[in-house]
Amino acid sequence: MKVALTYNLKKKDPLKPVDYFSEYDSEETINSVISALKNKGHSVEGIDVEYPALFSYFKKNSVDMVFNIAEGKHGRFRESEVPAVLDYLNIPYTGSNTFSLALALNKALTKKILKAEGIPTPNFQLFVKGDEELSADLVFPLIVKPNCEGSAKGINKTNVVNGKDDLFKKVKECINIYRQEALVEEFIEGKELTVGILENGKTRVLPILEIDFSNCKESGEYFYSWKMKEFQGNTELGLVPEFHCPARLDKDVEEKVKDVALRTHRAVGCLDISRTDIRLDKTNTPYVLEINPLPGLDPKESNFPIMAYAAGMAYDDLIEAILISASERKRLN
């Protein structure tokens, strides 16, 4: 099969915020996906989706499938940009469609759908200007997040607040820096879990990954903040979470968590692959924080491959499974 890999290469720019390119992929990830596809017998070419390079490439080259890991370039619908181009050109691609990618990047809209579907998610309020009255239904502690960002951008330990003064200070800071609404939601104390869904012939829920931040107390980063994701494993910074896969859960709770993740995957309309972040509270209620239809595929550090390994899959087999799932969908359509 002739495959094009679409991606955004992570880079540095001193004129941009430190987390600006956090969603983009490293050379290691890009090369690992290309290598995996080649090992499975496919012809592969990588394309950094800088415009107009994307249009130029597909104008000159025909492919059987696009393996898409691109985050897009601009705005609150950026993850849907490359799929939208491919849809227009009638080129099949892996992963979710334009609608699901655009929806999932908007945390507040996703949470509205989850609530309508009866899927537990923390109570929340969206702040557009930053001077709205705080809903009386919300209970501190609260956490403030940019509404349309991924990779924990804009989130650090100071985003968890216990009073109105700190809340509104952080809300206004979030709006000013990221030029978008601020999502405020109740901070759920409890186990941090993430659940991968893989569609390879049938929909499969991978072993649950538990991230234990007990060893990170000195850093103050006791949840998946941007610094935790960006510098995970750095002993000097104290960013050394422990991973347990499968998670340390009894069977009933495990099934409940998997069911919530699968229902979230389907409610958002994800295809081929997704990863749902969940907090398990003291009553063992799994609260969905967000869903990522475009999870990282770094073979060493990303959560999704860790879950695939726990399921007995090799990295090359994981990449091939995503490709085959998309190919089968193309055949049926």
Plain-language structure description:
There is one protein chain. The chain is α+β, with helices and mostly antiparallel strands. The longest helix has 18 residues, at about 250-270. The strands form three sheets. Strands 8, 9, 10, 11, 12 and 13 form a six-stranded antiparallel beta sheet that branches. A four-stranded antiparallel beta sheet has the order 4-7-5-6, with helices on both faces. Strands 2-1-3 form a three-stranded parallel beta sheet, with helices on both faces. It is globular, with a radius of gyration of 20 Å. The protein folds into three domains: about 1-95, Rossmann fold, CATH 3.40.50; about 125-185, ATP-grasp fold, A domain (Dna Ligase, domain 1), CATH 3.30.1490.20; about 190-330, ATP-grasp fold, B domain (D-amino Acid Aminotransferase, Chain A, domain 1). The mean pLDDT is about 90. Helix 1 crosses helix 10. The chain has helices at about 25-40, 55-60, 80-90, 100-105, 105-115, 165-180, 225-230, 250-270, 305-310, 315-330, and strands at about 1-5, 45-50, 65-70, 125, 140-145, 160, 180-185, 190-200, 205, 210, 240-245, 275-280, 285-290.
